[in-house]
Amino acid sequence: MALSTDGIATQQLSLPEELLLMLLNGESGYFHQVPGWDLNCAVIGAVLAELSLVSRIDTDRRSLILLDRTAVGDPALDSVLKEIAEEPVQQNARYWIERLAPRADSIIDLTLDRLVDLKILEHHDGDFWTLSHAVGHEHINTGNGEGTAVEFVTSRITKVIFYNEIPTPRDIIIVGLLNTCDVLRFIFELDDESEARIKVVCQLELIGRSIAEAVAHNLAGPLLRRSHLTKKIPTVPLRKLLFNPHLRDGNIPALFADIAQEYGPVFKIRPPFKKPMIFLAGVETNRWTNKRGRMYLRAKDYFSDFEKVYGANGVLPSLDGADHFRLRKSMAPAYSRGRLEGQLDQLYHHARKYVANWTVGDTFPATNMCRRMINAQISPLSVGVDTQDIIDDLMTYKERALSTHIVKVLPKFMLSTPGMKRRAKAVDTLLARVQSVHTSAQRADAARDLADDLLSLHASDPQFVPESNLRFALSAALIASVYLGDAFSFAVYAMASQPALYARIQNEADALFNGGDPASEAFTPSAIEVTHRFLMECLRMYPIVPMSMRNVMNTCVVEDYELPVGTQIYIAQTATHYMDDVFPDPFTFDIDRYLPPRNEHHGPGYAPYGLGTHTCLGSRWLELQLAVNVLMLAHYFTIDVSPADYKLRFSPLPSMKPSKKLHFRISEQRREIPA
Predict the structure, then answer these.
(1) Which of 226, 322, 639, 670 lies deepest, with the highest CB count within 10 Å?
(2) Mean per-residue pLDDT, 236-241
(3) Closest Cα partner for 74 from 115, 124, 41, 25?
(4) Tens-digit pLDDT profile for residues 207-216
(5) Are 103 and 82 in contact (CB under 8 A)?
(6) Which CATH number fits domain 277-669: 1.10.630.10, 3.40.190.10, 3.30.420.40, 3.30.450.180?
């Protein structure tokens, strides 16, 4: 493969690659929506057409003939070629499209991975894709001519449709496939003349015509796709829940792992006096949510009441589609690991300041200690002010709002009690403090923080980020102290309850900190290898947000169960963390799970940060801050679990945290804390 000086591949793109690039909407990070089965057929059609163009097969309206079984060198093409070569009876293109369409997802994944490897696409968390910076700004030769990879595809098709340029066989095939899927009208502004031209182009070449007809034949057979929509969603008896030991322990992931093992990946629970609750739990439902959920599910229905509590409308967790991607992309730098790496000196300072007055023998409530320690860092780093005096009110108000409007375990009036009204004022106090220090003069030489990014977005596009959303957005930044703090409390518990692991983490911490504060470059995979795997196992066994809620906006089929429009579903994405076939012996804390050849975290079974488009935006920030805090604590202190015979139980609502009975005791100060 030839490379240009900037590392961009100059190899000719295949038809499946060009098809996906034509479907990409670079502004939204989404692909132009083609119904799942239609897209599958079109992708297989593109594979067969490419194999024909490279002389591996020959195809017409009646037959498909193997010419050469020699591999092409592209996994997406070679897997199909191998299957055709092994077929004892000659078949036609229609047969192969129908047979291979269910496997198109894997071909799409391989194709997207290859486009990322070629540095044509960039992959973003949440399964968004955009053109790479180089492709968007440089002229790259793809082997076909001048221009960038995507510009070359779109410009070729534009010239064919609108300027009557003579099409190549590749152009004819691409136009035919896109026309068959009825997606050209979303990519271009078509009129009567251009539509007539498309019809002419589609008839110009035999291979393209035969492939397009074979794809169209499969699109016209809905019974082949819907005959399996007959399975009834099983209902779990309430006694199964009430007598499950994990319910009493508060271990929600383990509870739903048990239920899924007995009732399957899609099941229903009927609480008294409430609507039935439909749950998804399993590797394949995780995979479906990750890859296909964006086409069928939305978040705003269940989240709208909660955001209204803060006077907001259209904040990041409640957005879907292109607006969600746009805001997520705009805020990504504020939540990035790189932003935190640039402020490590401040992180060390605030962490040490919080623990400076600890003495041997002190005992602290686990949850409160860890949340406040994390907030002592997040508050100045993200919004530029100290909020330790109001963080308890902010957290309490937010958890009550979640309990009344999201989890709905409390009546709504419980958010209007005198105590809650008093705590609600903390939100306005926070907003006033942030705005008072985020003036142009005061921020002139300061490192950029999340509040700067939010206020800048508001100033540049007040319709997109209105002032009414700032109360939620700024307080949400601090509420991260809840989630990160609770993850920290689980990590401290796991470390304190396993002395051998504690010692290994202390060894890594001492190697990093004995020579002074480490720079960001010091946190290499080898330097914190044990700590990193330890934290991965903490996030597996103790996921902070074990479930997510969505509403079905388009009827869909998941694992042979139909979910109708309007259904509210609960995605128990971390149930897989306690499934034996995903994580053997799941109740054993084992950091070696993440070493090769085991690599048990590979795949959608490991989902501590959620799934799909709403995957946690700050996961990389969280990983670094969590690691720094665990390492600093291990470097300076030895901590014990209190009481000594404490058995971990969970407080699962509105998110998972250790029960209030867990305390931490300072049993040793290993070294003096620098001023």
Answers:
(1) 639
(2) 92
(3) 115
(4) 778 787 877 7
(5) no
(6) 1.10.630.10
Chain-centre distance for alpha carbon 74: 27
Residue 144 pLDDT greater than 80, yes or no: no
Alpha-carbon span 213 to 15, nearest angstrom: 17
Q: Which is more confidently placed, 122 or 350? A: 350
DSSP string for 171-186: HHHHHHHHHHTT-HHH
Determine the average pLDDT of the residues in 406-432. Answer: 93
Q: Which two tokens stand for residue 607?
A: 């989902």
The tokens of 111 are what?
């194709």
- What does DSSP assign to residue 448? P
Length of the chain: 675
CATH topology of domain 15-225: yeast vps74-n-term truncation variant fold (1.10.3630)
Q: What is the pLDDT of residue 627?
A: 98
Q: Give the integer Cα–Cα distance in Å for 67 and 646.
A: 70
**Domain coordinates in residue numbering, the chain:** 15-225, 277-669
25-31 — which CB contacts under 8 Å span 24+ positions? 25/322, 26/130, 26/131, 26/136, 26/150, 27/322, 27/326, 28/321, 28/322, 28/325, 28/326, 29/124, 29/128, 29/129, 29/130, 29/322, 29/325, 29/329, 30/128, 30/294, 30/321, 30/322, 30/325, 31/129
> Residue 157: helix, strand or coil by DSSP?
helix
Candidates 533, 640, 541, 658; CA nearest to 588 is 541
Q: Tell me the pLDDT tens digit for each residue of 53-87.
A: 999 999 877 889 999 999 999 999 999 999 999 99
Cβ atoms within 10 Å of 295's Cβ, excluding its own: 16
Residue among 130, 219, 131, 221 at smallest CA distance from 183 = 219
Q: Which residue has the higher pLDDT, 336 or 6?
A: 336
Considering only CA atoms, which of 368, 246, 260 is closest in space to residue 648?
246
- β-bridge mates for residue 562, sequence order: 557
**Over 70: is that where the pLDDT of 143 sits?**
no
Question: What distance in Å separates the CA atoms of residue 343 and residue 336, rounded to the nearest whole number?
Answer: 12
**Which residue is listed with tokens 């508001």?**
458
Helices (H), 617-672: 619-636
DSSP string, 468-508: GGHHHHHHHHHHHHHHHHHHHHHHHHHHHT-HHHHHHHHHH
H or E element in which residue 447 lies: none
Q: What are phi and psi of 279, to 5 degrees?
A: -115, 145
Coil, strand or helix at 97: helix
**In 239-341, beta strands by DSSP E:** 266-269, 277-280, 297-298
Distance CA 573, CA 41 (A): 29
- Strands 30-31 and 24-25: what pairing? antiparallel
Cα distance between the two ends of the chain: 56
Distances (CA, A) of 103 to 59, 97, 583: 21, 10, 26
Q: What is the pLDDT of residues 484-518, one digit of tens each?
A: 999 999 999 999 999 999 999 999 999 999 999 99
In this structure, what token pair is assigned to residue 4? 């240009």
Provide the pLDDT for residue 220. Answer: 54
Q: Which of 640, 664, 663, 659 is nearest to 649 (CA)?
A: 659
Which residues 6+ apart lie within 8 Å of 186 measured at CB? 32
Percent of the chain scored above 90 by pLDDT?
67
In terms of DSSP bridges, do strands 277-280 and 637-642 run parallel, antiparallel, or are they unpaired?
Answer: unpaired
Cis upstream peptide for 271 (omega within 30°): no
